[in-house]
Known about the structure:
The structure holds 2 protein chains of 2 kinds.
Chain A: H1 2-29, H2 33-37, H3 44-53, H4 60-72, H5 86-121, H6 126-140, H7 143-157, H8 169-199, H9 202-209, H10 214-251, H11 257-267, H12 270-298, H13 300-305
Helix pairs in contact in A: 1-12, 5-6, 5-8, 5-10, 5-12, 6-8, 7-8, 7-10, 8-10, 9-10, 10-11, 10-12, 11-12
Chain B: H1 2-17, E1 31-36, H2 51-60, E2 65-67, E3 74-76, E4 79-86, E5 89-94, H3 108-119, H4 128-131, E6 134-141, E7 144-149, H5 156-159, H6 168-173, H7 176-181, E8 189-195, E9 199-204, E10 217-222, H8 226-234, E11 240-241, H9 249-253, E12 258-273, H10 287-296, H11 299-305, E13 311-313, H12 336-345, E14 352-358, H13 367-381, E15 383-389, H14 393-401, E16 408-413, H15 422-429, H16 441-450, H17 456-472, E17 477-489, E18 492-493, E19 508-509
Parallel strand pairs in B: 1-10, 14-15, 14-16
Antiparallel strand pairs in B: 2-3, 4-5, 5-7, 6-7, 8-9, 9-10, 11-17, 12-16, 12-17, 13-17, 18-19
Helix pairs in contact in B: 10-12, 15-16, 16-17
Amino acid sequence: MRRYAVRQLVQLVVVVVGISMLAFGILHVIGDPVLLLLPQNAGKEEYERYTKLLGLDKPVYVQYWKFASRAVQGDFGKSWYTDTPAFKLVLERMPPTLYLTTAGLVCALLIALPLGIVAALKRHSFVDNLCTMAAVAGQAMPIFWLGIMLIIIFAVRLRVLPASGYGTWQHFLMPAFTLGAFLAPITMRLVRSGVIEIMNMDYIRTARAKGFAERTVVSKHAFRNACIPVITVLGLQFGQLLGGAIVTETVFAWPGVATLVVDSIRNQDFPVVQCAVVLLALIIVAVNFVVDMIVGLIDPRIRIAA
Amino acid sequence: MRRWLSLGSALFLLLALFCPSPADAQTREDTLVYALQSDVDTWDPPNSVLREAIILGYHVFDHLATRDLKTRRVIPNLATSWKNLDDTTWEVKLRQGVKFHDGSPFTAKDVKASFERVLDPTKKMTARGNHAKIKSVEVVDDHTVRFKTDGPYPLFVERMTALVIHSEKVLREKPHEWVQENPIGTGPYKLVRWNRKQEHLLVRNDDYWGRKAAFKHVRIRIIPEQATQIAELVSGGVDIIKAVPPDQMDVINKSGQARTATSPILRTAMLQLDQAARGGPNPFTDKRVRQAANLAVDADAIIKHVLNGLGDRTATAVNPMAFGWDQGLKPYKQDLGRAKKLLAEAGYPNGLDITFNTGPPVVEPAIQQTNDAIVADMAKAGFRVKQNYIGDNTVLVARIKEGKGGPMFNWSWGYYSVFDADAILYDVFKCGEAYSYYCNKELDDLIHAGRSTLDQKKRTEIYVKAQKLLFDDAAYLYKWGLRGVWGISNRVEYQAPADEVDRMFLATPRKK
């Protein structure tokens, strides 16, 4: 297990370095940053002064080294737009998004696991068809629309939940469900197909032959194995979930990092974009590392193969 | 495994529920909630061009003078009286016994420091242009100041409503960055905290010199999505929202929870055309193309059908409520034949392609719908318009300021709430100003003449000439004066303000 973990960690470092290069590159792909910063009527002198100020007169590898060594210390420079350190801005907005995505993930699992298993066990039954239809509907439903519908039903009509905002547990329910409903369909279908496949395996037949109750067979033998692909996919879907968070945050006035990133891209506020990209990538990488570890724990074949 | 999963989800849930909840002593009854679509960039009003910054500024700061919302006249505030000593000197008496939020007394040197800060060119304050006519500020005694102006300055009294008074001590002791986030004023509310792009919490200033606010707390929430704002209003989460789209008024009025209120506001909307070629050569440098654009659009129909009548057609960008407005000038009427002819004469017999930078409905109701209607009208005359939506208003404004607004873009001007033609002509039409894409020496001379005499009759004549010129030259694509639509909760009494400065300290609980 340790060797497996070390190997995953080495891969992780390579990925992080790659991402930092990409984030550094953002600034250089979109054109001359000095031209973006300066007013149009600025003269040549002003241009050269800014180039020096930003350190853009140095060779690229020197610039990258400077960027990377500062980034490690949490210094991504000041936001060009609000004049505050980019790291502070991003860090402030990170927790709401993490809470939201985590809650969305939990919500997705709470929907997907039971439905997926039931659908698999009662294959081609009415229940299965219903679940499949719900999944298709869920996948087809735009997050934006679902969010507004929930607001209209639970906040405006029933008056049981606050329409938007952030702060109490009630504020979590609708955004988490909205985001969960976005992830649930694919997870449910994955659980379903996983369980179906496994229920036809030899060891399930063996377990049944040994006289275990069907419940034990499903929960101990089938579910555990069906979890492996689900967990892997959930790790990969985490990035998607952050994408869904952008819309969810806008609809529910949720003060998260996803809307900050979009605003900053629009503002061409590159220090903030760079900082957010690196930190979000770190989180996604970390989540995937944890996922790999869990899968390794569950499935000895994987860690032995490594 | 199941245990693992359930343990995991329990942990996740705990984490999720453990998010910081604002532990304030405020209750729903003593708190007024006001929603804005976008946040301010700073808490230093003279350093911002945003309407939101002006509104927030009114709550925490005071101005020398303010506007009576009923009569629309300027009335004393921190100043108690003013008079001209001669054509270029104004003497202002100041209120005694006023205290800043940090406890220091308000005196003449605070006024001097506030004005000098804005006037200092090295500080690059956004509001500098508004006050640039002031040459110097002298302290006569603790409660008297004298302003020397560069020539006669007819807007002096109006402009006293447009600059917040900072504490001299704060400006001297604290760095610029600190002032951007920590407003210390003399106003009816104090800032408790600002969570960027989330909310501002204000608490009543119980030592306020004037009428004290009815609500102890004001929460100003940033809710970008309009549908969400309306849902919050009708579900009781928010008390006052502004810029309600006309097609949503019914939803609010039928909810039994809230109502709408409308008022003509001192804001004219237009599409700026890059006559000055700030973004490089473009078709609108040709007068005939600009005229064709004006002739293509049936603004009256748009006001009637898209805005449900909530707009007042104007011949130019000068608002009917502003001093100097020329009642006799008739607006452009749609005339597609003439528009096409003009385009052909200008060298576009087969029409032309135009990029149109559009913005969100932050201050202008139903802006997307009216844009669509305008674009459709323009297409009939041969303009192939491509809309480029910029969702963040602060970004659009920043781009426009830099000269990157494009050949055509959404613009509206709230006059910094100064009810005078000069307040739009100078900023939006004068050569070289940050928000002007028009440049005409003849007009500049008129603008200059208009602000150089205290004789109001002469000024009126000058502005009539200026409007004629702007109309004939079709400087921009003129639209209409706006009417604001507010959504107001039934638990609150609130008067929709004509100067577009929402004042939460004037809101009162509704008697049951």
